[in-house]
Specification:
This protein is 52% helix and 0% strand. With 136 residues, the protein is mainly alpha-helical. It has a domain at 10-99.
Length: 136
C-alpha cells in the first residue's frame, strides 16, 4: 500500500495544505512578474515587501490549518484532498472577508459607565426600560 493512499496524520495534512497554498502563491507571483513592466522585489505589492510576506504566510497558514483540521476530524483522508484544501482556503477566506462589512468608528479611551446605552435600531423594539425613539 502506498504511503499517499494511507490516512494522513494532521501534520501530514497540514504539510499538503501548505504545499497547495504555496502553489497558489507561486502562480500569483509568476503572473505578476510576467505582467509587470518593471518588477521590484522590494515592493511586490504597493504596501511593500513586509506586507507581502505577511500576507503570504497568513494565506498559506490558513490553507495548512484548514487541511490539518479536516484531516484530524476525518473530513479529508488523502493527500489530494488536503492539497485541494490548501489551494482553496485562501480563496474561501478572501471571499468571506469581502462579504463582511465593518461599519462604525472604533473608539478608545471611552469610559463604559459614562457612555450612553445603545439606542434601538429603526424598526426594532426598544430595550426593556427604554422608550422607543429615546436616544439617550
Amino acid at each position: 500500500m502506498s504511503v499517499l493512499a494511507a490516512h494522513l496524520s494532521a501534520l501530514a495534512g497540514a504539510g499538503w495544505g501548505l504545499v497547495g497554498g504555496l502553489c497558489v502563491e507561486a502562480l500569483w507571483l509568476h503572473a505578476h512578474i510576467r505582467s509587470a513592466k518593471r518588477w521590484s522585489w522590494r515592493r511586490p505589492i504597493p504596501q511593500g515587501l513586509d506586507a507581502y510576506l505577511i500576507s503570504v504566510v497568513l494565506r498559506v497558514g490558513a490553507g495548512a490549518g484548514l487541511a490539518a483540521a479536516a484531516v484530524s476530524s476525518g473530513q479529508a483522508s488523502g493527500a489530494l484532498a488536503a492539497f485541494g484544501l490548501g489551494v482553496g482556503a485562501p480563496f474561501a477566506v478572501q471571499k468571506l472577508a469581502r462579504s463582511v462589512h465593518l461599519t462604525g468608528a472604533l473608539t478608545t479611551g471611552v469610559d463604559p459607565a459614562a457612555a450612553p446605552g445603545p439606542a434601538a435600531a429603526p424598526g426594532l423594539p426598544a430595550a426593556p426600560g427604554e422608550e422607543v425613539g429615546d436616544a439617550g
